[in-house]
């Protein structure tokens, strides 16, 4: 989005000062907006996890045999059978925390690790600041041909982000880099 601002303002023939002013406003406003959205989404996820935990704890207290049947079904779907299944049900049901955690994971797909809304928001804001400043650097440095350098830096950062993203995907680094480059390059070209 910062490059879209840079491209739009540069395309209108406005001064580098206007490009920097609008680019900085975009970096901070968009960064805060994305961080706030991530905070709200992560907080909603955390609230839902806590709500489901309370529901399951209530069910364990009020309907222990029904919950044991559900626990048995969850464990049998994971490949346990016979004496091993019964021993696992007894062992897990002996610990209220292990029982509710297994039920949340097996019944609702809820991870046992709680998300941290503020940490997610700060990570989003920080990442947006770092990447959002890249298109502004040539203008901040007062370089000649600042727009061309900005475009090249932006495209290079798209590729680098995609290549880094391959660490968590099945794609090789170069394919992931090219994919992000193509998506970001298309968005930049549209701007």
Note the main attributes of this structure.
single chain; 9 helices; elongated; mainly alpha; about 190 residues
Termini separation comes to 9 Å
Number of helical segments?
A: 9
Give the overall shape: elongated
List the helices and strands in order: HHHHHHHHH
Helix content: over 70%
Number of strands: 0
- Helix-strand makeup class: mainly alpha
The mean pLDDT is 94
Low-confidence stretches: none
Q: Measured on Cα atoms, how large is the radius of gyration?
A: 25 Å
**Strand residue content:** under 5%
Let me know the largest β-sheet: none
Structure characterization notes:
By secondary structure, the chain is mostly helical. It has nine helices and no strands. Helix 1 packs antiparallel against helix 8.
């Amino acid at each position: 989005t910062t490059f879209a601002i840079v491209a739009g303002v540069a395309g209108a023939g406005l001064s580098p000062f206007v490009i920097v002013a609008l680019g900085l406003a975009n970096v901070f406003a968009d960064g805060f907006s994305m961080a706030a959205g991530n905070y709200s989404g992560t907080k909603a996820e955390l609230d839902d996890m806590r709500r489901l935990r309370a529901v399951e704890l209530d069910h364990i207290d009020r309907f222990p045999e029904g919950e044991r049947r559900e626990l048995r079904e969850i464990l049998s779907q994971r490949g346990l059978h016979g004496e091993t299944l019964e021993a696992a049900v007894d062992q897990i049901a002996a610990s209220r925390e292990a029982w509710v955690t297994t039920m949340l994971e097996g019944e609702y797909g809820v991870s046992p690790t709680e998300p941290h809304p503020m940490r997610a928001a700060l990570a989003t804001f920080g990442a947006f600041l770092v990447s959002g400043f890249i298109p502004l650097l040539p203008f901040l440095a007062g370089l000649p041909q600042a727009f061309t350098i900005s475009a090249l830096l932006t495209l290079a950062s798209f590729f680098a982000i995609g290549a880094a993203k391959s660490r968590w995907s099945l794609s090789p680094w170069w394919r992931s880099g090219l994919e992000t480059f193509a998506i970001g390059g298309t968005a930049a070209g549209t701007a």
